[in-house]
Request: fold
Amino acid sequence: MTEKSMKLIDLKEGQKGIIISISGGRNVIQRLTDMGLTPGTEIKMLRNGPLCPVEISVRGFNLVLGNGLAAKILVKVKE
Amino acid sequence: MKKITIALAGNANVGKSVIFNRLTGLHQHIGNWPGKTVEKAEGTLFHIDYTIDIIDLPGIYSLSTFSMEELISRDYIAKEKPDVVINVVDATNLERNLYFTLQLLELGRPMIIALNQMDLIKKKSMRIDIKKLQNFLGVPVVPLIATQGKGIHDLVHEAVELAKGEYEKPKIEYGKEVEKEIQKLIKSLNKIKLDYPQRFLAIKLLEGDEEIKKLVEEVDQNIIKIVEKHAKKIECFHGHDRSTVIASERYKIANEIAKDCVSLGPSRVKFSDKLDEITTHGVWGYLIMIFSVVTLFFIIFTFGNFFSDILVGSLMSLHSIFEQYFGTGIASNLVWGVVEGLIAGITIVLPYILPFYIILGLLEDSGYLSRIAFLMDRFMHKIGLHGKAFIPLMLGYGCNVPACLGCRIMETKRERLIAIFVTTLIPCAAVTTVILGLVGKYVGLNWALSLYVIDLIIVFILGRIAFKVFPGEPTELIMEMNDYRMPDLKTVAKQAWFRIKDFIYIAFPLIIVCSFIIKVLDVTNLSETIENLMKPITVDWLGLPDFSGIALIAGIPRKELTLIMLASHGGTTNFGAILTPVQMIVFSLVTMLYIPCIATIAALIKEIDWKKAMFITVFEIVFAILVGGVAFRLLTL
Reply:
């Protein structure tokens, strides 16, 4: 199994990843971790179109994230 | 009669307001938290020999200090100490809901879990072991299907029992390392007496919560150093910053409980998934969105127009009856001015705003507005907002007043301000009647539609400028995407009523007072003086006839009055005879932009401060006159 890290926003639809870290200010980190995006959590990219924000599945629910936020989250890709 | 207080707390979209409505029925009072622009819903329930006050706290995901709502909620529970806290939990989304539950438990009040949406559990062929859940959490768990009223009675019963009896605080422990530091810190806090329980204080201090830190510092400055030592330890051990560590710990517990209590059935593709797929699609999604928005407007305004005509006709026929009784003197004329104001308000609310808000409410409750927020996010970013700002903008097409209040969904002050500003530029139902009654009828529907397009372009440009002018980083969208569902009619009706109530309470009195003043101006012939004073602007700059001056002034209380005044001062309702097409377009354009009506100004003062409200008002007047003059010159080239 090969593993590489990339930004959440670079995941393709259907791809899974595990959150490594979130960069950003206190508020950003607090908001994201409150929604369950803590390091070690598995997420799946559901939608990542050119015109829209991204939609991921995390902890059994679907979450929409602005593109700027999705670029702040570093994930390890599961293949 | 014994009195108890219950607070409802939970995530957004878990059916909290449905439960609140079920519990309190018509005994409700919606206001604001003192000094805050956050809605406070209170209600009363009479149960056997109990009077139960129920407070519906805002829907939130955490008890940190990220938003005003979170701060208000935790302060309320800690300081007011409600007898029972009912934590409404979405059964289909246990893990994330439990994250919030764990924080609520830390506040130490007697608690019940209302496990809602049990019908969806069956539908999704999931199963939840309620006994197990109860054992894990150490508090009663009541299964509910709130939309059908199932379980409500049990919930009340449990709450009363809990309020009567002794409450044993459940013990839920964090991971070993973190728990060790928490325990040590609690010992150091033994001299601190605040409204919050010691364990809550200790955890919040470890998390780096600024508010709690300030409170503790006021009592004992040395504590902070001790906190720092413990926090460093957990950061060292876990390799992440302190708030992330604590959040991870809570989620770990939530995950373990959820895994143990919930068994998933076979997953299958549902109809709602397919609907979701197509309505968020890169091409189809936008087409469907445009189609549904256009259809919505078309239905509302054709239906509204038809209904409004009938309503105006029948209400105005009261005039002759009125004159029979009160004569045609000045006094009676003035009183009729007030009645007319009332009628005008009604003929805007009933035919246009009410149906508009009901349909919008249905779209909102079904989950479609979240999809629109998703589709519009990128676009809204260009004006420094995120996708959710699209919702108040839509409300603006009905009435700007509830739309301004609707801007509360924006997270930061800065975003609220920008959202409110662009919302006031949206043509409301009253403006639409002017545009359709003037340009639509006499110049052509294409021109009327172009005015809307021009308006959107203006919104975009001014929004972008506002975004650049006001300092600060834009907040990004974080939004839960729920499955589509059948909207709950009661909730929708209630929501529509509350939005319209904003309009009635703020706008109606102002409309009536101002209609009266305008009538006075009219009766005393002061209006001519005003028209003459306004000539340099109306005639020279905008190229409008002189009688348009008073009509534009009349738009300050309510925009549709401009049309009525135009008719009475122009001497005919056949506007084709008194205005050229260019004049109609310029007039409509100015009416659309020149001032948020007096009710909107009042809403602005309520939501932001009066200085900013005045700035927006003056700016929009100047801007509208500017645009009107330029349009006049371009159109007569």
In short: Residues 5-78 of chain A form a domain with the SH3 type barrels. fold (CATH 2.30.30.90). The helical segments of chain A are 26-34, 67-70.
